[in-house]
Fold this sequence. Notes:
Elements: E1 2-6, H1 20-30, H2 52-59, H3 61-65, H4 70-78, H5 82-86, H6 89-113, H7 120-128, H8 130-162, H9 170-185, H10 189-215, H11 242-252, H12 261-264, H13 273-302, H14 312-321, H15 325-340, H16 343-358, H17 376-393, H18 397-400, H19 404-425, H20 429-453, H21 458-486, E2 500-505, H22 511-523, E3 526-533, H23 537-553, E4 558-563, H24 570-583, E5 588-597, H25 610-621, E6 625-632
Parallel strand pairs: 2-3, 2-5, 3-4, 5-6
Antiparallel strand pairs: 1-6
Amino acid sequence: xxxVSETPDIEPPHxxxxxxxxxxxxxxxxxxxxxxxxxxxxxxxxxxxxTAVQGLAALSLDAMASxxxxxxxxxxxxxxxxxxGLGFTLPVTLAIAALLAVLVASYRQVIAAFPDxxxxxxxxxxxxxxRAGLVAAASLVLDYVLNVAVAVTAGVAALTSxxxxxxxxxxxxxxxxxxxxxxxxxxxxxxxxxxxIAPTAIFVTAILTMIAxxxxxxxxxxxxxxxxxxxxxxxxxxxxxxxxxxxxxxSGCSALTGVEAIANAVPSFRAPRVRxxxxxxxxxxxxxxxxxxxxxxxxxxFGLQPVxxxxxxxxxxxxxxxxxxxxxxxxxxxxILLALSANTSFGGLPVLMSLLARDNYLPHVFAxxxxxxxxxHGVLALxxxxxxxxxxxGGDTNTLVPLFAIGVFVGFTLCQxxxxxxxxxxxxxxxxxxxxxxxxxxxxxxxxxxxxKFTEGAWLIVLALPAIVLCFEAVHRAYxxxxxxxxxxxxxxxxxxxxxxxxxxxxNLSRLTCEALNAAVSLGDEVRAVTVTHADPEDxxxxxxxxxxxxxWNPGVDLVELTSLxxxxxxxVSAYVQRIYTYHPTTRVTVLIPEVEPAHVWQRLLQNQxxxxxxxxxxxxxxxxxxxxxxxxxxxxxxxxxxxxxxRTGEANQ
Length: 654
C-alpha cells in the first residue's frame, strides 16, 4: 500500500472570511434558543461541553482556591505594622469583596454581550480597537500562565505545611502536579470538570465548615501548627499608613484572579451558553465573597500572627478545628484544590489563544481542535511555559504572587472601559454606569498593584506586557505579508495547463522504485529518474550495477546520472532542477521522493533520513513541488523479488 502526501509549505493566513470553526461557534451561540425563546435540545457536541456546575469546577478553581493565599498576602503585608496592623485585615478584605461584586456583575454583562468568548480581549478589541484588544489579551496570557505556577506552588506549600519533611522536594512535587493536570486536560475540559467536581465540593465544604465552627469559638482550639516557627510580626508598631493599606489591598487582589475565566470560555458551555455561564459566574462570586470575608473574620477573632513555614489557612484550621484529622482534611483538600486550580488556565487560555490565532495574532496551530473540544497545542504550550516558571521560582509561592495580579487588572480595566462604550451605543446608561464604576476601581487597583509591587518583581510584568503585544503584532504582519503574496481575497486567474516534469531520485532497483515510477507517470507528462554518483571505486561499481539493471528492466523512463564531487545528495538534485528551469522556464517540475514507512515505530531509527535532507535542499534552492511518497511496509507483506544491485551505503532511505 502506498500513500502520496504533498508537503505543505505554510498554512495560508485567515482573511475576512471567518474560520469554519469560528462560523460554527457563532452559529451555535445564536442558536441557543429557538424562535419562541425556548432552549434548544443539546446537540451531540454538547456532550463535550460544560454545564453550569461543571463550569464552576473547571473554570473557577483559580478564584475559589485563592482564599488559600489571598488573605495570607494581606496578613503578611499588614504584619509590618505589628498587631495593630493586623486589625485592618477585615476592612481591607471588605474592600476587595466590594470590588469582587462589581467585577462579577460586570462580567455577567460581558458574557451576554460576547457569547463567543474572549472576555476582555473581545470587549477591548471591538470597542477600543485592535491595539487595546492585544493589550488585554497579553494581560490575560500573563495572568493565566502565572496562575498555573502560583496555584501549583501554593498547593505544594499546603502539603509541606502538613508534612514539613517534604519541603526540600517542593520543585519536583510541583512538576509532578503539573504533569497530572496537563494530562487530565488533554482528555477534554468536560472530563477535567468531572474529575474536579468532588475535590471542589470537599474544599468548599471544608472551608465553610471551618468558618462556621470558628465563629462559635471564643479562642483558638490549638496552635500546634505554628509552634516552633518564627513569627514575622513586627514589634513596637502603633500606626498604619495609607501606603501600607494600599499595599495590603494590592496583595489581596490576587484573590480576584480567575473571575474573568468564565467570560473567556463561554463557547465551552452547553446551550443555552450565556445563561449557564452567567449562573456559574454568580455562583463563583457568592462563594468566593463568603469565604474571603469569613476567613478574615476568623483572623481577627483569633488574633492570628503569620509565621514562617506555615500558611495562614493552616493556622486557621488548627485554631477552629484542632490539630486532628479535621485539620489534615482541610490541608489536603486545600492542597488538592490549589494544585487543580491551575485548571482554570487550562480551560481559559487555550480558548483565548484559539481566538488570537483566528485573528492572525498567533500561529494558526493554536486554533486547531482535537477530539473532545481540546485545543491540545494551547494546553501543551501553557504546560511548557509554566514548568519553566516553576523551576525559575524554586516552587516558592511568594516569589510569584507579586507578579500575579497586575496583568489581570489591566485586562479588567480595558474590558470595563470597552463595555461602557458598548452600553452607551446600545442606549443602556445604567449598565454603562456599572461598567464605568468597575473600570475606575480596577484601573486604580492596577496602578496601586503595579506601584506597590514594582520593586518586588512587578517591573518584569511592565516589560513583558508590551513585549507580548509586539510579538502578536509581528505574527499578524507576517500573516498579512503571506496573504498579500498568496493574493488572498482576490479572484485568481483561470487555471491553465503547463508541461509537467516529474523527477524521481533513485539509488537502486526495488519495489519502492517501481511504486515511485508508477506514481510519477500518473502525475506528469514526462518522468526522469536521477541518481547521484560519486568518484569512489565502490560507488562507481554500484552505479554500473544500477545502470545494467535499469537497462535490463527498461521501465520506459530515462535514468540521469548526476556527478557529485562530495557525498552530498541534495545539492546535485537541486542544481539539476535549477538547470531545467533555466532552459525550460515554463515547465512545472515536481520532485517525487520515495521513502519507506517501516512496520514498527522503532524501525524508523534504522533509516538514514536522506529523504528529508533531499526535500530540504530542493525546497531551499528551487521552486519545484515536493512530493513525499511513502511505501508502507506491513509485517505480512511478502518479500520483493531479489534484484542484483546492492543499495549504496547511506543513500537509500530503505
